Amino acid sequence: GTCGVMGTASTMALMTEAMGMMLPGGAAIPAWASDRLRHAEETGTRAVALAKEKVTPDQIITQAALNNAMKTLLAIGGSTNGIVHMAAVAGRLGLNVDLDAFDTMGRDVPMLVDLKPNGSYYMEDLWKAGGLTTILREIEDLLDLDCPTVSGKTLGENLAAMAPGWQQDVVRPRGNPLFSKGSMAVLRGNLAPNGAVLKQSAADQGLLVHEGRAVVFENLEDLAERIDSADLDVTADDVLVLRNIGPKGAPGMPEAGYIPIPKKLASQGVKDMVRISDGRMSGTAFGTIILHVSPEAADGGPLALVQTGDRIRLDTPNRSLTLLVDDTEMTARRAAWTPPPAHKGSGRGYLKLYLDTVTQAEDGADFDFLQATGDS
Description:
Helices cover 32% and strands 12% of the residues. It has helices at 8-18, 34-52, 57-60, 63-76, 81-92, 99-108, 123-128, 132-138, 155-161, 220-226, 263-266, 327-336, 349-357; strands spanning 185-189, 192-198, 209-217, 239-242, 274-277, 289-294, 311-315, 320-323. Helix 1 (8-18) crosses helix 4 and helix 4 (63-76) packs antiparallel against helix 5. The radius of gyration is 22 Å and the shape is globular.
């Protein structure tokens, strides 16, 4: 089973089916349903057949199939983790999740699925509404229907073979989307030269264009120590910045980007603020939260140079994230910057291997030596 809402596991199940790596109809089946057992048995039978036919994942996961999965991610308003996970999958196969291309897709693919945390319903309701088939039929003209799938048929043939649709309220028609602008936005600027991600469908729409004063937390320990302090110098208009929680910084890029609202502000009724980090967040989270800032702070990215009191400007419609500090000052800060202290045990073994070879978020936070090259 998965979360009952559009969390990361639900997201990945739907993307996997859209990509052709799951038998049709499987992604949204609840754990308790007898259909789940039937689907599992069919999957086992088909897996044996695929092995006999010598069908390998790289024959199914093509660039076109990957693009279908990314368009599905936008349509479902799924977890931002889907970007990192698919980037890792792509890297293993010599393919690419291009963030700018993904952002362009979002201009054409509205968010259609009315599931929590973006909407009102649950995964069980999506299953009753027809599951992924209902979603894909709404964006059918945007997909590559000739992609092969593990069923032995193309994506288009799978869709044509499924039962006709019926009246339901969970998946919106394209003409009446839940969110028309694309559920996610890719931001760039001097604070995120290699990109950052904002799930704008889960954000306070009044904060999508915002300028505020940075309040910086150096790491998770600093955040835990100060975030609920009555002495914390912070207002609702400020921008909370948490760094050193990226692939190398944490290490491991934990789901800690969902920075809590400071206690003194939460008690005043503040529900959302602009928050920025080089980490991830759960697919069940919501808020104006900018994630996956790259390069990460621990790797010397500009996020490492932000100081409390700096001004930061977010302009989501123009896809920009800007630290309003002049180049001369940034050069001076860069010269004075030193990396954070080494992690305990990082001089040997697995941790050393990980820190020496892990990629940044846009490349899937994967081992670089596992990424496909021209001769592999």
